[in-house]
Amino acid sequence: MTDSELDAIRAKRLVELQQQQQQQQQAGSNKNIQSSPEEKQQQQEDMRNTMLSSLLTQEARARLNMIALTKPEKGRMIEDILIQNARRGAFGGRKVKTINGKTNMID
């Protein structure tokens, strides 16, 4: 497989994950049974982690986790930026290999 084929597969998978997330949100809002706030929070965190796992290489994910351990608010801010950029298609289906540029932007 060439890089362009892999990028196309990654982009397709990211779109599928986003569609699943939207469907789950719609299904959750259509239910008459109210979920507890803790369950909703856990579901959001699970979806967030799934999206970040699909966006980041293992090395970048490890780096982000180290940042989040030392500075939780900064780690969360970086995660938010990455997710927003992915939703806008800024990565073009590619995985993020490094997050050093993102941390420098925030400092």
Automatic annotation (TrEMBL):
Region forming the signal peptide: none
InterPro entries tied to this protein: PDCD5-like, PDCD5-like_sf
Residue ranges, annotated region (Disordered): 17-51
Basic and acidic residues bias (residue ranges): 37-48
Superkingdom: Eukaryota
GO molecular function: DNA binding
Protein family per UniProt: Belongs to the PDCD5 family.
Designated name of the protein: Programmed cell death protein 5
Natural source organism: Rotaria magnacalcarata
